[in-house]
Structure formats: structure tokens, C-alpha cells
Design goal:
- This protein is mainly alpha-helical and about 280 residues long.
- The chain contains 13 helices and no strands.
- About 80% of the residues lie in helices and about 0% in strands.
């Protein structure tokens, strides 16, 4: 079910988790991590995001857009592509252009990257190369911070080029030897799972950008109860909808800090809308 590269990543992830748990300080922080996780799960944006993802997943499976052999690839896409996109939007929602982000996701590199990731080296080779690439990536991140490490950066780039060349050769050989795979629908579903996923989750990405605006407005108020915050979220949506300019003006309204009730929030939003 998992190709050698995915198996190597799983094995090294397990090794990393076991090593981390062997550290006393990490074990002591586990209760706080679990508490934070449950707090995140109850967050309205988290609930809406994952409800939408599960809904789309069920629809795709019901209409057989997702075959059994593609489910694993789709789940990996959610964690390795969709969630990073969501993080980018939620962290830079004020300046983020979601249209540009979506167009950026449709790259011609999708096909060669799929072949490189699908047709890999042996499990033993991947077990050696995966941690080496992770180490090189870490060294490059450090080297980029200071010009005196320029030579190190150049060396790391050269090594990455070598590994990239090895991956490409292995992928081409694997693809040629398994050319019969191209006659299977599953092959094409796997190749274009990125495009299918982006198209079906585009409404979610747009909604999340505006929900971040809504939440920012609510945070600036003095509304404390979780139930009231959920109602406030609906109120902000009804009053501002998808008008980015109105939302930005409301965020800048310093009088929001005096708002303690839903009625006051509605009045404040209406007053700001009339000014605009």
C-alpha cells in the first residue's frame, strides 16, 4: 500500500517519536499538548474546516471519484498539501490573494513530481537517503541566515542536485518498467489528485480567509463566552459578508474593545458599515 519512500518516512517518524518520548521534558509536556489539541478541536474554524473535508471525502467516495487504491494518496495530500495551504491562508489572510494561491497550485511540475514520488528506490536506499535529505535541509536553513556559510550552502545545493538526479533516474526506470500502469484509471487519479483536491476545496479556502477576518474582529471585542463567540461569528458574517474593505475597517475600530454583548456588536458593525 505504501511505496518505499513513504515506508521510510513512517519508520523514521516512529524512530523520532520514540526518541522524543525518551526525553523526560517531552514526556512531561504531553498533558499540555493534549489539552491544547482538544482546545483546537473545539475551535469553530477547525470544526468547519474538517467537516468540509470529511464531507468532500464522502462525496468523492460515494461517486467513486476516489477508488480504494487512491484513498491513501488523497489522505496524504490533505496533510501534506491542503493543511499547509490552510496554514498559509490563516497566517497571512489580510494580504493573501487566494485566487493567486490556487492558480499557483496548478503547475506543470505536478506530473514529473508524481512520477518521482510514485516510482522510488528500494526501501533500504530510501531509509538512508530520507534522513540525509532532512539533514541537508536543516543545514541549508542555517546556512541561509549568514553569508559566511555561503560555501556550505553551495555544497548542500550540489548534494541535493545529486540526490535529485538519482531520484529522477530511478523514477524514469520504474515508470518505464511499469508502463502498463498508465492503462489503469487509478494511475490517472493518483496523478491528478492535487488538481481534483484543489478544485473541490476552493470554496473552503475562500471561506477560511474571511473567517479569519471574522475571528479577528471578535477577538478585539470583550466577548468571552464560547457560545456567544459562535453567535458573534454569524453576526459578523451577516453584517459584513465577503466585503474585505468593510472587514478591515472594522478590525481597525478601537471601540470594539468595549463591546460585551451581541447587540452591541451588531450596532457597532452597522455603524461602521454606514460610515463606509
Amino acid at each position: 500500500m505504501f511505496n518505499p519512500r513513504e515506508q521510510a518516512l513512517i519508520i523514521w517518524l516512529i524512530v523520532f517519536v520514540i526518541f522524543a518520548l525518551s526525553i523526560k521534558g517531552v514526556r512531561a509536556s504531553i498533558p499540555n499538548i493534549i489539552k491544547s489539541l482538544f482546545s483546537l478541536i473545539k475551535h469553530p474554524i477547525f470544526v468547519i474546516t474538517n467537516s468540509y473535508i470529511v464531507f468532500i471525502f464522502c462525496i468523492m467516495y460515494y461517486f467513486r471519484i476516489l477508488e480504494l487504491g487512491v484513498i491513501k494518496d488523497y489522505i496524504l495530500w490533505i496533510f501534506m498539501a491542503l493543511y499547509p495551504l490552510i496554514f498559509r491562508i490563516s497566517s497571512k489572510y489580510v494580504d493573501m490573494n487566494v485566487n493567486h494561491l490556487i492558480v499557483e497550485s496548478f503547475k506543470f511540475s505536478i506530473i514529473p513530481l508524481f512520477i518521482i514520488n510514485e516510482y522510488t528506490l528500494s526501501i533500504w536506499a530510501e531509509l538512508v537517503i530520507v534522513p540525509l535529505i532532512a539533514l541537508i535541509g536543516g543545514l541549508m536553513a542555517v546556512a541561509e541566515k549568514d553569508e559566511k556559510y555561503l560555501q556550505v550552502k553551495m555544497l548542500m545545493n550540489f548534494m541535493l542536485m545529486i540526490f535529485g538526479f538519482i531520484f529522477i533516474i530511478a523514477a524514469i526506470r520504474g515508470f518505464i518498467s511499469s508502463i502498463y500502469d498508465t492503462t489503469k484509471i487509478e494511475f490517472w487519479e493518483k496523478m491528478f489528485i492535487d488538481i481534483i483536491g484543489i478544485l473541490l476545496h476552493t470554496p473552503l479556502l475562500f471561506l477560511l480567509q474571511y473567517m479569519c477576518f471574522y475571528e479577528h474582529i471578535i477577538i478585539r471585542t470583550n466577548i468571552k463566552k464560547r457560545s456567544m463567540k459562535i453567535i458573534a461569528l454569524v453576526v459578523v458574517f451577516l453584517e459584513c459578508r465577503f466585503n474585505k474593505k468593510t472587514l478591515q475597517n472594522n478590525i481597525k475600530n478601537y471601540k470594539l474593545r468595549d463591546v460585551e454583548t451581541i447587540k452591541e456588536l451588531r450596532y457597532m458593525l452597522k455603524a461602521q458599515s454606514e460610515k463606509n
